[in-house]
Amino acid sequence: MATQIRIAQDEAADEVLSNDPFALLVGMLLDQQYPMEHAFRGPWKILDRFGTLAPDAIATAEADAFADLCATPPAIHRYGRSMAGRVQQLATVVRDQYDGRAETIWTDAKDARDLLDRLKALPGFGDQKARIFAALVGKQLDVRPAGWQEAIGPYAEDGSYRSVADVVDPVSLTKVREFKQAAKAAAKAKAATVTKK
């Protein structure tokens, strides 16, 4: 991966995301119920404390010790211990199904549908997270298998600020955050209207 990722908004953390495909996958896993830039700093924290991001090493790490490492402040996530388990599950799948090479999940996909199926099969990746990650590798790593735009939908739109896939600097991070807040407010208003009826 030669592209410079700038999601974490931290030089050391972004360097890890830029150079290690598994780190990018772990960042996406952690991106829930937690500010996105903090989630994407998680892989750097693991590397700094554990010494490696090799899926095999993470998969075979003693679970309690690894959870302690992930939950130590500053933790990798608001729910550091439970997310440590998810990271180990993800590492196991990457080790067992992709020979420890996370990037083959997207580089070897036959088409966009296959890419989404591969992503949705990962622990902690539902449909929306799979689409956002597919948009991320498409927009920032230029991995766009056949049918990419159609399969991913709005997240693939050029010039949008919908998700982490669109974060390339502090300005775009702010725009994505504003988009998410507006979407949340609209959903809340819609729910309130439905409740009143």
UniProtKB/TrEMBL annotation:
- One example GO MF annotation: catalytic activity
Instruction: Tell me where on the tree of life, at the top rank, the source sits.
Output: Bacteria
Q: Name one GO biological process term.
A: DNA repair
Put simply, this protein is called: Fe-S cluster assembly protein HesB
Q: Which organism is it from?
A: Pedococcus bigeumensis
